[in-house]
């Protein structure tokens, strides 16, 4: 989730899986592992990915939390595009470090029942 979350950061999360929206950072379980990712697509959203752009319901998603990548960066692993509609009670999630992230591009949407919690704030932990 770099640059948003870095090694050594600590986070406060609440155990909730309802009232989630695009941009929220969530903790969820998938394939017996715990992941921290950002919600990009919510139930009913129509997503279109081409190169390094995401359109949601025909509107370009502005992602100010991402680091700047070169224009020819391939976030789709050699696919020309991805189009999907997020099913009810499911979410499409991506890591903020798109070139080094295992996320919904690989394992598909995640169901609401896999969500452990939502991160509300983070802080740096330093030992003096």
Automatic annotation (TrEMBL):
Q: Which chemical reaction does it catalyze?
A: Cleavage of hydrophobic, N-terminal signal or leader sequences from secreted and periplasmic proteins
Which GO biological process categories is it annotated with? signal peptide processing
Q: How does it sit in the bilayer?
A: Single-pass type II membrane protein
- The EC number(s) attached to this protein equal 3.4.21.89
Q: What is its main location?
A: membrane
- Stretches assigned to the Peptidase S26 domain: 1-123
Origin superkingdom: Bacteria
Q: Which Gene3D superfamilies does the UniProt entry name for this protein? A: Umud Fragment, subunit A
Where is the protein localized?
A: Cell membrane; Membrane
InterPro entries the record matches:
LexA/Signal_pep-like_sf, Pept_S26A_signal_pept_1, Pept_S26A_signal_pept_1_CS, Pept_S26A_signal_pept_1_Lys-AS, Peptidase_S26
Entries under Pfam families matching the protein: Peptidase_S26 (PF10502)
Keywords carried by this UniProt record: Hydrolase, Protease
Extract the GO molecular function terms from the UniProt entry.
serine-type endopeptidase activity; signal peptidase activity
What enzyme class is recorded for this protein?
A: hydrolase
Protein family? Belongs to the peptidase S26 family.
The name this protein carries in UniProt is: Signal peptidase I
Organism listed in the record: Candidatus Enterococcus testudinis
């Amino acid at each position: 989730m770099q640059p948003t979350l870095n090694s050594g950061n600590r986070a406060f999360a609440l155990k909730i899986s309802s009232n989630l929206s695009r941009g929220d950072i969530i903790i969820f379980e998938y394939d017996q592992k715990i992941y921290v990712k950002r919600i990009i697509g919510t139930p009913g959203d129509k997503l279109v990915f081409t190169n390094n752009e995401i359109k949601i319901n025909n509107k370009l998603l502005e992602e100010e939390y991402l680091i700047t990548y070169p224009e020819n960066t391939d976030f789709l692993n050699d696919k020309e595009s991805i189009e999907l509609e997020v099913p009810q009670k499911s979410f499409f999630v991506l890591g903020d470090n798109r070139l080094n992230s295992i996320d919904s591009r690989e394992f598909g949407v995640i169901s609401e029942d896999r969500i452990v919690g939502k991160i509300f704030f983070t802080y740096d932990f330093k030992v003096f």
